[in-house]
Amino acid sequence: MDRRIFIKGMASSVALSSIPQNIKIGSSKKNQKHPNIIFIFCDDLGYGDLGCYGNPVIRTPHLDKLASEGMRFTDFYAASPVCSPSRAGTITGRIPNRTSIYDWIPANSGVYLRIDEVSVTRILKSMGYTTCHSGKWHLNSRFDG
C-alpha cells in the first residue's frame, strides 16, 4: 500500500470515526465542523497502566474520563521500543528504516526527521485542523505540523 494513501486513510478514519451524531456528512462547508482530536503519546506506559485499560491500583480519573467520552484504541503497534523512532513511525506511518531514525535523538545531534516527510499532522492541517504539540518532541528542531 502506498504510504500517502495509508496516512490519508488513517487521518480520515480518525476524523470520521469520532464525528458527533449531530453533524451531517453532506452539510454545507459553512456548517461543517471537524471533531476534536487529542493524541496522547507517552513514554514507558504499558497497556494496563491506566484505569481505562483495567488497572485497579493506579488512579487516572482524567484520562479515564477522556477515554470514556472519545475513542480508545485497544490494538497497538510501536515502530520501536525507543521514543524518537516510535514517534516518527506514529506520525508518518513509516518504519525506522524508512525514516532513518533508529534511536533517541539528543538535542543538536544532526539526526532529524526530514522536513519533507508527510505526517498525520500536516494532513490534518490541510483538512482545516489547527495542530499543536506540547511536551517532548525529539524528532527535529521544530514542530511544523
General description of the model:
- This protein is mainly α and 145 residues long.
- It has a domain at 3-19 and 35-42 and 78-126.
- It has helices at residues 3-17, 61-69, 83-92, 96-99, 120-126.
- The longest helix has 15 residues, at 3-17.
- The protein is globular and about 40 Å long.
- Residues 35-140 form the Sulfatase N-terminal domain.
- Belongs to the sulfatase family.
- Pfam families: Sulfatase.
- Keywords: Calcium, Hydrolase, Metal-binding.
Any chance you could write out the topology, listing elements then pairs?
Elements: H1 3-17, H2 61-69, H3 83-92, H4 96-99, H5 120-126
Number of helices: 5
Poorly predicted runs are: 16-28
Strand content: under 5%
- Please tell me how large the radius of gyration is: 17 Å
Biggest sheet character:
none
First and last CA, distance: 23 Å
**Helical/strand content category:** mainly alpha
Number of strands: 0
Report the principal-axis shape: globular
Mean pLDDT: 79
Q: What's the helix-strand series?
A: HHHHH
Helix content: 25-40%
Descriptors for this entry?
145 residues; mainly alpha
